[in-house]
């Protein structure tokens, strides 16, 4: 069913939307001078909604592919992965953004999938701190009982703790696009990846401002890791 959904979205839904986008852009470019203000506004709104639909479909494909992709687990140095993601994502970010990467225990994981987890969480944290005077993000982890726990903490936009159970559902957004751009699929992808690793995800709203997102991975030795 997941393969059928992925094929249907990728082949039969995304292609017509891309074609529609092309026509709308061409029409707007060729005819904007002949349209009145109301006409240009309606066309711009249609173009914006078509672009949103395209992003939603692409994110839905990403979400279903996570369920289908074969995992290649190995003992992974998560601190190296997190630091690499930070370098990539903060290359063009605010000069005063402070990102600290602390201790992150090694764990049994698929490199590409866990990198995707950090990309989603750190990217969300960066978006959350836009406009802050002193934006800061902390990435870290620790061992607790039989699991390694990792977190991404920021001092940006927080959320209502009463809605924490909805954060990781596909296309569920707690903030408007103007405040927090995106389709709302990133955290659902995080949960799907962590679920496949046998871990957990959760989030906490900080008392003053910002939020902390957590995920855990089971502790496994080299002989147990794989598959």
Explain how this protein is built.
The chain is of the alpha+beta class and 227 residues long. Helices cover 45% and strands 19% of the residues. The chain has five helices and seven strands. It has helices spanning 2-31, 37-68, 78-89, 111-128, 186-196, and strands at residues 73-76, 98-101, 107-110, 136-144, 147-154, 201-205, 211-218. The strands form two sheets. It has a five-stranded mixed β-sheet. A hairpin with a 5-residue loop joins strand 6 and strand 7. Helix 1 runs antiparallel to helix 2 (37-68). The longest helix is centred in the N-terminal third of the chain and has 32 residues, at 37-68. The radius of gyration is 20 Å and the shape is globular. It starts with a helix and ends in a 9-residue tail after the last strand.
Described by the principal axes of the CA atoms, the overall outline is globular
- Level of helix content? 40-55%
Question: Strand sequence of the main sheet, in spatial order?
Answer: 2-4-5-7-6
Radius of gyration: 20 Å
Low-confidence stretches: none
User: For the terminal residues, how far apart are their CA atoms?
Assistant: 23 Å
Strand percentage lies at: 15-25%
Helix/strand order, N-terminal first: HHEHEEHEEHEE
List the total number of helices. Answer: 5
Summing up helix and strand content along with how strands pair, one would put the structural category as: alpha+beta
SS elements, strand count: 7
**Rounded average pLDDT:** 83
Q: Specify the oligomeric state.
A: single chain
For the sheet with most strands, the description reads:
5 strands, mixed
